[in-house]
Amino acid sequence: DFPAGDEDYHTYAEVTEELERAVAEHGDIASLSSVGDSHEGRALHLLKISDNVAQDEDEPEVLFTCNQHAREHLTTEMCLRIVERFTDGYGSDPVVTELVDTREILVVPTVNPDGAEYDISGGYYHGWRKNRDGSGTDLNRNWGYQWGCCGGSSSWPSSDTYRGTSAFSAPETAALAAFVDSRVVGGEQQITAHIDFHTYSELVLWPFGYTYADTAPDMTREQAQRFQDVGTAMAASNGYTPQQSSDLYITDGSVNDWMWGEHGILSLTFEMYPASGGGLDGFYPPDEVIEPETRRNDEAVQILLEEAGNPMP
Ligand SMILES: CC(C)C[C@H](NS(N)(=O)=O)C(=O)O
Ligand SMILES: [Ca+2]
Ligand SMILES: [Ca+2]
Ligand SMILES: [Ca+2]
Ligand SMILES: [Zn+2]
Questions:
Q1: What tens digit of pLDDT does each residue of 245-266 get?
Q2: Would you place residue 197 in the very low, low, confident or very high pLDDT band (cuts 50, 70, 90)?
Q3: Could you identify the atom of ligand 1 that is nearest to the CA of residue 72?
Q4: Which ligand is nearest to the CA of 188?
């Protein structure tokens, strides 16, 4: 469990309860499934929110993933905020209603439940980042686009940026990637937009991470411009700083590079609150910040959902 004073953060069991409650209370627009199991056998929950939720309708699909990194617990709360807003708000909030009626919203609140549970085991924080397979794989270096190409990850198992033994060697990234692969219907990827939530530094990041170059054979100038335009608009709404991922540092095997490089998905990363925090403390803001710092991204989430209906150049 979370340490005393931080009880408002959700354990894996509490996340599961929240999702089941959302379906119980809003079964017409919410359905719960999973993309697979973690290394230790926890279901990687997937909540779908849409009108006619049992039908696969021809509406832009938008994916939100959280908690790839175990200690970044505020991101799990961010995904739960999206679930709360787009279920409770349906039928009363006109913006929410319109989006639930015209999109298929897909939320994975914890990509790394084993790591998150380990990080709080014993009622104190362990500063853990990776999954719990062996000495742990950094899930955000294990994706299969330019995996291990460019010095943006480590080959040492004990490193916090250990890339794994191969692309998708981690069961969690493999399951999530297989789900996204399965959303290619009639030769067309149904998911058009994605945000992967992290903490911390208050940034909006877009591909590529593997190269400093703004454009590349797999990123035209027009496409780079679209990422920048959307990223900048979202950052204007939440006060984060917008930039290309590699402006921060080079990463290879990141989720954004794969979502864009492999599937052409408008895929960004948000680094949430705090802006700076000095080392490990930044990953553990008090639970009093959960409400303000998740609601802070309501408008940005709305922008992405709207943008999901516009074609990529
Ligand atoms: C998305 C990348 C560019 C930044 C991220 N930072 S974090 N969340 O691990 O501190 C990471 O290193 O994976
Ligand atoms: Ca508290
Ligand atoms: Ca629908
Ligand atoms: Ca669909
Ligand atoms: Zn992270």
A1: 999 999 999 999 999 999 999 9
A2: very high
A3: 8
A4: 4
Centre a 10 Å sphere on the Cβ of residue 182 and count the other Cβ atoms it contains: 10
As a whole number of angstroms, the distance between CA 9 and CA 1 comes to: 9
Distance CA 89, CA 165 (A): 44
pLDDT, position 277: 79
159 in ligand 1 pocket by Cβ < 6 Å?
no
| Contact yes or no for 171/212 (Cβ under 8 A) | no
- Please give the pLDDT value at position 156: 98
**214: Cβ contacts below 8 Å, ≥ 6 apart:** 221, 224, 244
Of the bound ligands, which one is closest to the alpha carbon of residue 106?
4
Q: Is the CB of 244 under 6 A from ligand 1?
A: no
Q: What is the model's pLDDT at position 246?
A: 98
Indicate which residues carry an active-site annotation.
271
Residue 276: pLDDT above 90? yes
Q: Between 12-25 and 73-88, two packed helices, what is the crossing angle to 10 degrees?
A: 10
Q: Is the CB of 71 under 6 A from ligand 1?
A: no
Give the three-class secondary structure for 143. coil
